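Task card 7
Instruction: Convert sequence to structure tokens.
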Amino acid sequence: MNQGVTGRQLTLLILLLSVTGTLIQPHAQAIFYAEQHAYLSYIPVFLIMLASMWMLNRVQSRFPDQDLFESLVERFPFLGRVAGLMYIMFFLLIFARDIRLIGDYVSITLLETTPISIIVLSLLVMAVFIVRGGLGSLIGMSELYITLFLLNSMVVPFMLIQQVNLENLMPYFDIDAAGVGKGSWYIFSFFGEMIALPFVIKGSDFRFRSVTWGITIGALLMMLIMVETITSIGVPIASRLVYPSYELARQLQVSDFLDRFDLALAAVTMPAMITKIAFDLYFICWGLKRMIPKVSGKLMTGPVALVGFVCAFWFFKNAIQLFRFTREWTWIAIVFEIVFPLVFFVFLRPRRKEKGSSHREEKQRDTTKKDNEREKKRRDADQEGETEKDEMQGGELQPS
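Output:
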């Protein structure tokens, strides 16, 4: 059964899926093509994802008591399962990519002498235990660590005042539209992973207002981080870094006593990244449970995690190959983040019989409710009449 999700929790889940992966990798590629106007690359991505999530919201409103996996299987038993399995395979690739991406990130920036296989296994063990707690564990960790990440993001600009050079944004109005479009191409596949939420949240909890808040806050936050990166590091250097966000954190310095503030930021961002991996694993296990009812999603967490571990090193030999794959990855992401939502919006509707039967059932419930109210009023009236009669009899029998 789907767990209830509030509007605030839905907004935080949107931020979890859109911010964590985007923060690590595609900023350098966007800066390379769009240069000082790379932050504008988020505007097309924001508009596209807003339209895509609006279509899925309309689809979810047609099935208020079901998630998208359920509605697909119930409405189209064969084609729905095919579409569901395709999304499961899509997020299996994302799961393997995120494992390798975060594993390389930790190995290069924090634990240089630790074998990457040990790092990835440690991340997977934590993700498995989170997923075994269900969607509630993911929501709880999102409420804690995404909130801390937002607070840190508001504090960081004040710490970068000495390093900021606004001349790095010049010329301000000479915008290369083609370069901005290429930057959007590299960002889109990471930012659009919020498409998974309708598959695990029932329609009545999938509120478009909360989704809009999440997409807006995520886009503005990423634009702010992009501007901070360009103004403090510069376009020539930032465009050639593998992890520009980490280099941005290294620029932070609190007075003269704390010059490794990046470790404090890593203590907040790493749990958020682990939660993102756990959500990928949860999506796969939840989808398998919906496609194959006899399968236990909880027991599948371990085997699926091991499959993701193998695929992470099988698909991507090193960090450079993973870095270059972003260009081709967007072609795959377009199918699942734009094309399929459009197809669902057009074709995924309840059967007409179901509509008619539901209308009749609702009418019958109203009629039954009215009859029950009438019967209750009649019983109350009869009971009052009997009470008055008993009182009169009781008065006559009382001794003088």
